[in-house]
């Protein structure tokens, strides 16, 4: 850390804070929709198990939402502190997009969140369900604006550069840039996948401990059904996203594949494993399958795409990191497919809840969705380098004039504070999960008359966890 340049430290700091932040919105998006489904099923069937599960997961949602808001604020401030030249250059695009996210999505979420968490005894069932649906829609709108901003940085269009700054000329082109639809679909489905795996792991943990409560079985079954549906869908979306990336960011795809140069008349092999050597311009120790790379990326056995050697050295991303982060994401994706397929087989045999090996795999796969999201984010962002706005502004021209010692000190403070604050929050959230669903009280989520101040989102979570949840 003490040998890194100011630019590298600024990138590490932003990467560190975003890595913490991204997991919370992912779970927020998935849990918000899951809560809407649970409450809708309760209103439809009047099965109290759905109501108990809705209250149980709303506790977890409240803690997760609060941590997502806090971590997002820190990340946003870095645009002005560490990336001031980027803000001055492209702020006329990214600034309004982030403002639209606040005006539409965040206000919608915040406006209905109180009703969802604390309004069970204050509004009717229909209005409460409407509030829950609005919160779920708000999370999706928030993802839309954030990904529109990020996608524009990956595939910019709809602008001109006037006097050294970006000036939007067509907002529809800015928002609906070439990679936006694929990135939005890929991230939204990843959020649903991550939540399904998280909920499934919670159910598996209780089942392994001998808790065969009907509510536990129901939430585990729902999670496995969701996994069966969205895991194959993500493969299809990922394939289309890869084709789009090949069209607009070929250097990133070459780094993902560890491909350095074309062989005329021969299809490109798929390199399963290897070690891309940036200095030697080759991938060492590689294990490859002939022509499969061409089939996947061009849908043709003899299709060609550019290798990294065809790009100037200063325009190449770090192939070693991108190569392995991409394989981590894809490898976890195949494990998710396997888990979903196994769950179908066990369901068909009528033994979904009683196989220790299957339940242990479901438990250990709990964080895999979030790890895959982080790996995909590293692939996307490091693969875009050395550009902060692809083909328009280099990252080295976007960083603020800070010294390396200052950035080192700030980064160390961030590391200590993040692990202390968010580590405590995550530990508390996992304790809530370990406690399991309970029969709802007569006045759920009522903050009580002791204070005239508005209740915070965290007030929806219990103040303490008994020994059962420890």
How would you sum up this structure, described in words?
The protein is mainly alpha-helical and 470 residues long. The chain is 66% helix and 6% strand. Helix 1 (6-45) packs across helix 12. Mean pLDDT is 87; it is low at 447-451 and 466-470.
Compact overview of the structure:
With 470 residues, the chain is mainly α. The chain contains 13 helices and six strands. It has one domain.
Please outline the helices and strands.
Layout: H1 6-45, H2 48-81, H3 84-118, H4 125-154, E1 159-162, E2 165-168, H5 171-175, H6 180-208, H7 214-248, H8 250-257, E3 270-277, E4 282-289, H9 292-298, H10 319-348, H11 356-364, H12 368-384, E5 387-389, E6 393-394, H13 404-435
Antiparallel strand pairs: 1-2, 3-4, 5-6
Helix pairs in contact: 1-2, 1-4, 1-6, 1-12, 1-13, 2-3, 2-7, 2-13, 3-4, 4-6, 6-7, 6-11, 6-12, 7-8, 7-10, 8-10, 8-12, 10-12
Number of domains: 1
Q: Report the span from N to C terminus.
A: 37 Å
How many strands? 6
Q: For the largest beta sheet, what order do the strands appear in spatially? A: 1-2
Structural class: mainly alpha
Query: What is the helix fraction of residues, given as a range?
Result: 55-70%
- Beta-strand residue fraction: 5-15%
Rg over CA atoms, rounded to whole Å, is 24 Å
SSE string, helix = H, strand = E?
HHHHEEHHHHEEHHHHEEH
Work out the helix count: 13
Mean pLDDT comes to 87
Descriptive tags:
two-stranded antiparallel sheet; single chain; 6% strand; 470 residues
